[in-house]
């Protein structure tokens, strides 16, 4: 079954309206919680008048920060503890200031609007420049200034740069993006028993259980967290939003279930954003374009309240700065800066797309500087397959098996690169023809998160994943897995792995996840860890069950285990086709103690915790062909070609879906999306009218190809795929846009490359 | 006020607040939670249903405006023989990932095929332009609709 494009088990329910998303769940006596959000970017709260709101029929109460003063802080950066609601001051527009609970969602919204908050404005620092200016005032107490963290990752390379025959400097901007899953954040908490049951749109239910239990002083068995169907997450549902704790607390106080579901308008200002880096780069290289030394200073805008993931995400950017190239010396340092904007944290790729964008743009800049073809400059720098596993300049960052040159060669041939260059020259000579540009992106990213020592740093219990594989007495299988997928198709892909190990029909396997009362301790879904970590846990557990089944079969067939071989639906004695037993018979026998070999434990079941040896490194080569209208600056994508190496492909259909979706988000970052604020910190993209999530007419068809180099870091050989497209695509598109304009002397176009921006660049250049 | 709305062939008579949106009438009053809410600006189309056969965004229609009308939601699409051709197409071609936009997308695609039984790729993209999907990047949705067009259409 591994490698088969089987349609998904998940689909029938989701296609017929039988999915169960948080907002679909109803509990008797359900109440609705709504926030009052700050309308100010930086201000002291001088008063909150909730009298009118409280008087509305159906309103159960209005609560402010001081009502939750007894609750330990949310998971925070040590020393920079954050609460649930703004206390004395607000740090950004959209920060929750008060919370209202009412009998229905319309009344709750009315009441939230009736709460009057008085503010005394403070100076607003909505940009990193403003926040670091000499006259800036500290935004987040207890920080004495707005520089929350300054981190050198590797030492200085000044001497190596000075010794390089050529050098260039660049400043690149990786703009702020919103994850914008179609389902906004939601929580339903029912604490009418000894502990809360919490249904939530989260990516790591066991971690959420631990954090809730800790804050309320409960043993974990009393807390049940369920991530039901989750409508997309892209990393933004891994942040510890206040509602995860406020909904249970209010349910406890009111003795009734409480539901909070974010509106889209709230999502755009309240749920944490991603990216938002400025990168200052100096690179040294030789006449062939060989990269000799790289020096990078990253400045990250982490928003108004530091998030424990957001504050350190640039560590991952630093680790991946070398991309798939042999760069002997890399110096990286980063600064995380507090500003009066929504906090930033994980968004699909979380720190790695920023690195891939940087190095891929740098390679193009080097090629341009030397007048060489960007494909040729890539070729002289690529790490070769025989050099794998490859130790990067960063301790512990070791790339697994891959063939980067083969991926680039396949891409160039699929693109007909030489033909495109000819077509480009032809169009350049014809003023009536739109400009043509070709962009390449030979990328590598990190997947398969763990291992444990790394994942502990992000607050997780471990970096392993767990799986329980259990045969039912009729030979059908239930799998419990510790991930919490939200569209990736784990029910399907993990069942394929089990089907192969146990020789059980795919339809006889059910995969369950997302419920802490059902599933053994698990880690969750993020960091492209589904197949490389959870897949291996399932693989390992199923293999143990298969071995035990074979031993029982041997006993039933009165043969040595070594002489028993798996056949279609069971086992036979080697060379004796008439002596067989079905797996269903073996499964039933496993529950009959008096008919088993002495000392055999009952049942056919195994729980495995798979700890990866290291991260995995999905890679590939993507190419984009764009056309630019000479009059309007509008960029149209003519072709988008992907060559991906995610190691073993479990299901080509869902793998294709993951690539498409990631590429779509990458293209959207390159051409359309940007979370923006004005100088006073007012959000300019607080709805889907203003924040341009692409529609069907905005995105091209994608051509997908695979190179399959199995990773030696895990038994399945899988590397992960969920973030590869989003990591690869932005620079493929931007390199193409810059390539189309290169004859004008254009060196860079900042994302998103909107018609307005491209038109201005063209005009300024000519 | 009282409204009478037929949903998936079933007549319903309910006392409602005049400001109640059709999507909340379906989800909260009738517990038909297949129709989703993804935004508050009529941008995303997750709430698309058929109102007297026309695709509408039910977050932008008052329940009062649907008084006397017939509404079809995703729950009313599959016949006794299982999934409709559009639903089957989405399954065959992996036209859904998280499934949140899917009910609206399936309803919009059904309305599209009722009007244009054999649409081109561009006509499909144009016909679905009121619906957003954050997971698939749309190509496999286009392929799903093409599959449905070739296998029974808007049925």
Automatic annotation (TrEMBL), chain A:
Q: Where are the transmembrane segments?
A: none
Can you tell which superkingdom this protein's organism belongs to?
A: Bacteria
User: What keywords does the record list, in alphabetical order?
Assistant: Molybdenum, Oxidoreductase
InterPro entries the UniProt entry points to: Ald_Oxase/Xan_DH_a/b (IPR000674), Ald_Oxase/Xan_DH_a/b_sf (IPR036856), Ald_Oxase/xanthine_DH-like (IPR016208), AldOxase/xan_DH_MoCoBD1 (IPR008274), AldOxase/xan_DH_MoCoBD2 (IPR046867), AldOxase/xan_DH_Mopterin-bd_sf (IPR037165)
Q: Where is the Aldehyde oxidase/xanthine dehydrogenase a/b hammerhead domain?
A: 16-123
What Pfam families does this protein map onto? Answer: Ald_Xan_dh_C, MoCoBD_1, MoCoBD_2
The signal peptide, as residue positions, is none
Descriptive protein name:
Xanthine dehydrogenase family protein molybdopterin-binding subunit
From TrEMBL, chain B:
**Record keywords: Transferase included?**
no
Concerning SUPFAM superfamilies, the annotation shows: 2Fe-2S ferredoxin-like (SSF54292), CO dehydrogenase ISP C-domain like (SSF47741)
Q: Which residues cross the membrane?
A: none
* Gene3D superfamilies in alphabetical order: 3.10.20.30, [2Fe-2S]-binding domain (1.10.150.120)
Q: What keywords is this UniProt entry annotated with?
A: 2Fe-2S, Iron, Iron-sulfur, Metal-binding, Oxidoreductase
Q: Which species is listed as the source? A: Nonomuraea corallina
Please report the name of this protein according to its UniProt entry: (2Fe-2S)-binding protein
Keyword set includes Glycosyltransferase? no
Q: Which residues form the 2Fe-2S ferredoxin-type domain?
A: 1-77
Q: Return the PROSITE patterns for the record.
A: 2FE2S_FER_2 (PS51085)
């Amino acid at each position: 079954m591994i490698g088969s494009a089987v349609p998904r088990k998940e689909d029938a329910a989701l296609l017929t309206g039988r999915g169960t998303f948080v907002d679909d769940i109803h509990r008797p006596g359900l109440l609705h919680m709504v926030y009052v959000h700050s309308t100010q970017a930086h201000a002291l709260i001088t008063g909150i008048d909730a009298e009118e709101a409280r008087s509305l029929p159906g309103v159960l109460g209005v609560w402010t920060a001081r009502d939750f003063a007894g609750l330990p802080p949310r998971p925070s950066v040590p020393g920079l503890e954050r609460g649930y609601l703004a206390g004395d001051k607000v740090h950004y527009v959209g920060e929750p200031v008060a919370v209202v609970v009412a009998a229905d969602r319309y009344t709750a919204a009315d009441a939230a609007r009736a709460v009057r908050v008085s503010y005394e404005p403070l100076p607003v620092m909505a940009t990193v420049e403003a926040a670091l200016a000499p006259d800036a005032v500290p935004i987040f107490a207890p920080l004495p200034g707005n520089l929350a963290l300054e981190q050198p990752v590797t030492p200085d390379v000044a001497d190596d740069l000075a010794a390089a025959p050529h050098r260039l400097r660049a400043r690149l901007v990786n703009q702020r993006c919103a994850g914008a899953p179609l389902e906004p954040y939601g929580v339903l908490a029912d604490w009418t028993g000894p502990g809360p049951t919490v249904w939530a749109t989260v990516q790591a239910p066991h971690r959420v259980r631990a954090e809730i239990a800790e804050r309320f002083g409960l043993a974990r068995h009393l807390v049940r967290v369920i991530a039901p169907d989750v409508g997309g997450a892209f990393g933004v549902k891994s942040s510890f939003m206040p509602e995860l704790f406020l909904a249970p607390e209010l349910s406890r106080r009111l003795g009734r279930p409480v539901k909070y579901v974010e509106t889209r308008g709230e999502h755009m200002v309240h749920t944490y954003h991603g990216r938002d880096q400025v990168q200052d780069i100096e690179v040294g290289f030789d006449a062939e374009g060989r990269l000799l030394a790289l020096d990078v200073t990253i400045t990250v805008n982490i928003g108004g309240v530091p998030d424990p993931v957001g504050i350190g995400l640039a560590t991952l950017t630093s680790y991946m700065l070398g991309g798939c190239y042999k760069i002997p010396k890399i110096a990286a340092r980063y600064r995380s800066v507090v500003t009066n904007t929504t906090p930033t944290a994980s968004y699909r790729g979380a720190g790695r797309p920023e690195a891939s964008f940087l190095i891929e743009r740098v390679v193009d800049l080097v090629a341009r500087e030397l007048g060489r073809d960007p494909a040729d400059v890539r070729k002289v720098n690529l790490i070769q397959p025989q050099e794998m596993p490859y130790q990067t300049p960063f301790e512990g960052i070791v790339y697994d098996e891959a063939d980067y040159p083969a991926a680039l060669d396949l891409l160039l041939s699929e693109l007909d690169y030489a033909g495109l260059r000819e077509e480009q020259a032809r169009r350049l000579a014809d003023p009536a023809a739109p400009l043509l540009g070709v962009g390449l992106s030979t990328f590598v990213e990190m997947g398969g998160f763990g291992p444990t020592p790394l994942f502990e740093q992000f607050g997780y219990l471990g970096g392993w994943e767990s799986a329980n594989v259990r045969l039912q007495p009729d030979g059908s299988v239930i799998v419990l897995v510790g991930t919490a997928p939200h569209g990736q198709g784990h029910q399907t892909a993990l069942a394929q792995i089990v089907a192969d190990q146990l020789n059980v029909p795919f339809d006889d396997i059910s995969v369950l996840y997302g419920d802490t009362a059902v599933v053994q301790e698990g880690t969750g879904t993020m960091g492209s860890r589904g197949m490389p970590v959870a897949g291996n846990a399932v693989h390992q557990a199923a293999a143990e069950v298969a071995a035990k089944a074979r031993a029982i079969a041997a006993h039933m067939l009165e043969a040595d285990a070594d002489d028993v071989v798996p056949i279609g639906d069971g086992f036979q004695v080697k060379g004796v086709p008439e002596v067989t037993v079905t797996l269903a018979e073996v499964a039933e026998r496993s529950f009959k103690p008096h008919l088993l070999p002495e000392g055999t434990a009952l049942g056919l079941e195994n729980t495995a915790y798979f700890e990866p040896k290291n991260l995995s490194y999905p890679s590939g080569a993507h190419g984009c062909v764009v056309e630019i209208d000479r009059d309007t600056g509008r960029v149209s994508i003519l072709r988008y070609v992907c060559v991906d190496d995610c190691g073993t492909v479990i299901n080509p259909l869902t793998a294709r879906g993951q690539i498409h979706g990631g590429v779509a988000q990458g293209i959207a970052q390159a051409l359309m999306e940007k979370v923006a604020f004005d100088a006073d910190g007012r959000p300019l993209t607080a709805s889907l009218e203003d924040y341009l999530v692409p529609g069907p007419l905005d995105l091209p068809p994608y051509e997908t190809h695979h190179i399959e180099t199995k990773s030696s870091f895990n038994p399945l050989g899988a590397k992960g795929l969920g973030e590869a497209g989003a990591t690869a695509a932005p620079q493929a598109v931007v390199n193409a846009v810059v390539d189309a304009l290169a004859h004008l002397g254009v060196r860079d176009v900042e994302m998103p490359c909107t018609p307005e921006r491209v038109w201005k660049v063209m005009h300024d250049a000519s | 006020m009282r409204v009478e709305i037929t949903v998936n062939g079933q007549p319903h008579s309910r006392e409602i607040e005049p400001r109640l949106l059709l999507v909340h009438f379906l989800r909260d009053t009738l517990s038909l939670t297949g129709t989703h809410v993804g935004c508050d600006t009529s941008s995303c189309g997750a709430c698309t249903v058929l109102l007297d056969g026309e695709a509408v965004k039910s977050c932008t229609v008052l329940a009062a405006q649907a008084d006397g009308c017939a509404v079809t939601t995703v729950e009313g699409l599959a016949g006794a023989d299982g999934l409709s051709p559009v639903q089957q197409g989405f399954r065959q071609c992996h036209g859904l990932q998280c499934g949140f936009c899917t009910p609206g997308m399936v309803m919009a695609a059904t309305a599209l095929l009722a009007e244009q039984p054999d649409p081109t790729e561009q006509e499909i993209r144009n016909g679905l332009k009121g619906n957003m999907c954050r997971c698939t990047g749309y190509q496999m949705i286009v392929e799903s609709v093409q599959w449905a067009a070739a296998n029974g259409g808007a049925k």
